[in-house]
């Protein structure tokens, strides 16, 4: 699959901002869509008593429109790192498949390897890894499950094929430019951090 990139100005001035000193509110860090469901992920920051370090980041996922509910896998709590002023978060996502799935949740406290100095915290880069909800173990076996996973497969009657997913072909690392826009694709977002007084 050849991937093409647009240079349209519509993608050049979209910014999202997180106020690092706002400890009361969940603030938007990631809007996206999967399975036709629009959802967002927001973050709430907890600071040290001195207000100079981030000690905790809680995230919350809200499904807004669509037939499938998207959830965070518990492994997401271990998917945060901090490098060169950038918090890097990978969301492990899966759609609920009609049964009570204890491996999914809508809110998680991220495990920080160390406290983050607030003056060095410049941005959060968020990306996702979507896992199929199919439990059959085979592509053809998936046809007999109660729900069809349209993010990973296409079908026509008794025929089924795995999709060559565009998400797997796109860059999945933080842009080098610290002032990079919020996100020019559905899979990632880059949020600027501000420190209000």
**Beta strands, count:** 14
User: How many helices in DSSP terms?
Assistant: 0
Average of pLDDT: 84
Beta-strand percentage range: 35-45%
CA-CA gap between termini: 49 Å
Uncertain runs are: none
List the helices and strands in order.
Answer: EEEEEEEEEEEEEE
Gyration radius (Cα, Å) is 18 Å
Structure in words:
This protein has 197 residues and is an all-beta fold. It has one domain. 0% of the residues lie in helices and 43% in strands. The protein has no helices and 14 strands. A hairpin with a 5-residue loop joins strand 3 and strand 4. The termini are far apart.
Outline of this structure?
By secondary structure, this protein is mostly beta strands. The chain is built from no helices and 14 strands. The chain has one domain.
Descriptive keywords:
43% strand; seven-stranded mixed beta sheet; 14 strands; 197 residues; globular; mainly beta
Task: Give the topology.
Blueprint: E1 16-19, E2 27-34, E3 37-47, E4 53-65, E5 70-73, E6 80-83, E7 86-95, E8 104-105, E9 107-110, E10 116-117, E11 123-130, E12 153-156, E13 159-162, E14 189-194
Parallel strand pairs: 1-14, 7-11
Antiparallel strand pairs: 2-3, 3-4, 4-9, 4-10, 5-7, 5-8, 6-7, 11-14, 12-13
